[in-house]
């Protein structure tokens, strides 16, 4: 009997150790990375034209990244586009924003300046490494004109952004800058990914990234939650959890970045006739829910109820009386620099010459 109890204790102890080990290894596993790879690859492989039609958000964010890069005067010989998708950053560096009919002076100045910035930035980059986990996404625009317009060398690399184990990522201190647009929000261990990005940067190297966060798709989120509460008496995780603006600074500091600049912009995409159209666009983008604990089925009655709630709470009525649905994407833009002895350093405490009392 004692031996049986002892064996049971051993089994219980072994089970506890195994459970602890599993918990330790999966503590950051919120997203199903394998399923996300399938979701992202499906539309570019089956219908590239449809896939290109839903690039409006990534193209807009790439343009806003270029606007921010224009303020940085240094050269970037070797740049890593981390989670590059099909090359939105490179494509928008090589395209020009056309002037509309009868532009005013402000529009003319802004558009001219943006197009000049594109030329300046792309001429600074001698080698651009585009890295993405999906070969179908990465190769979709392989024959597009921007590949010939870009003056530097473009290298496409298929690698898992989370594993960070490709040859082009093993060497430390090799990239002058790392750009990452709208891909970090699907990484489970975000602190480790940022630390790895910091490692491959040269000292005083630049990291410029954008990540979907905050209250992104709050209209869709609240509509689905209210509909499911009404119809089912509970809620399922229909929309992925996202990082918040207040957490980004500590994540970057923890990863070893300094001289941080963080801001957030809401990009509102309007004109969706119904909730199904919005979900189809998200699906074509590869941005549908990929949480491990997600529900695999959305009942029709919940979807219909969510559509009516969406229209009543967030719908926008046009001049013709037709109600369309907006979708808000909250994009967090971050700039961080890898620490270096050559960077400006704060003076020691107590060395100030002017009292704040006199100023204020």
Automatic annotation (TrEMBL):
Gene3D superfamilies per the UniProt record, alphabetical: Vaccinia Virus protein VP39
Keyword Manganese: no
Record-linked Pfam families: Methyltransf_23
Top-level taxon of origin: Eukaryota
Name this protein carries in UniProt: Methyltransferase type 11 domain-containing protein
Keyword Phosphoprotein: no
InterPro entries associated with the record: Malonyl-ACP_OMT (IPR050602), SAM-dependent_MTases_sf (IPR029063)
Alphabetical keyword list: Methyltransferase, Transferase
């Amino acid at each position: 009997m004692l031996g049986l109890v002892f064996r049971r204790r051993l089994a219980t102890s072994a089970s506890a150790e195994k459970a602890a080990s599993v918990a330790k290894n999966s503590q950051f596993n919120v997203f199903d990375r394998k399923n996300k790879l399938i979701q992202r690859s499906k539309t570019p492989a089956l219908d590239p034209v449809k896939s290109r039609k839903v690039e409006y958000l990534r193209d807009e964010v790439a343009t806003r990244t270029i606007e921010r890069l224009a303020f940085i005067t240094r050269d970037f010989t070797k740049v890593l586009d981390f989670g590059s998708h099909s090359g939105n950053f490179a494509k928008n560096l090589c395209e020009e924003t056309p002037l509309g009919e009868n532009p005013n002076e402000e529009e003319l100045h802004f558009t001219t300046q943006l197009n000049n910035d594109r030329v300046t930035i792309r001429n600074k980059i001698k080698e651009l490494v585009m890295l993405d986990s999906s070969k179908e996404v990465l190769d979709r625009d392989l024959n597009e004109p921007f590949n010939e317009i870009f003056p530097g060398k473009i290298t496409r690399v298929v690698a898992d952004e989370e594993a960070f184990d490709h040859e082009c990522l093993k060497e430390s201190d090799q990239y002058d800058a790392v750009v990452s647009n709208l891909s970090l929000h699907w990484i489970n261990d975000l602190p480790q990914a940022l630390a790895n990005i910091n490692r491959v940067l040269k000292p005083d190297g630049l990291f410029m990234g954008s990540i979907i966060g905050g209250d992104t798709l709050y209209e869709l989120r609240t509509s689905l939650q209210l509909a499911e509460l009404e119809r089912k008496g509970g809620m399922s995780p229909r929309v992925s959890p996202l990082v918040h603006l207040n957490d980004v600074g500590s994540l970057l500091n923890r990863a070893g970045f300094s001289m941080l600049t963080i801001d957030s912009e809401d990009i509102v995409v309007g004109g969706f006739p119904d909730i199904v159209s919005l979900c189809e666009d998200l699906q074509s983008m590869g941005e549908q829910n990929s949480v491990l604990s997600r529900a695999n089925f959305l009942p029709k009655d919940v979807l219909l109820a969510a559509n009516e709630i969406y229209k009543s709470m967030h719908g926008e009525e046009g001049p013709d009386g037709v109600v369309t649905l907006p979708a808000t994407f909250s994009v967090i833009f971050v700039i961080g620099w890898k620490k270096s002895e050559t960077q400006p350093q704060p003076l020691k405490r107590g060395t100030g010459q002017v009292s704040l009392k006199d100023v204020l």
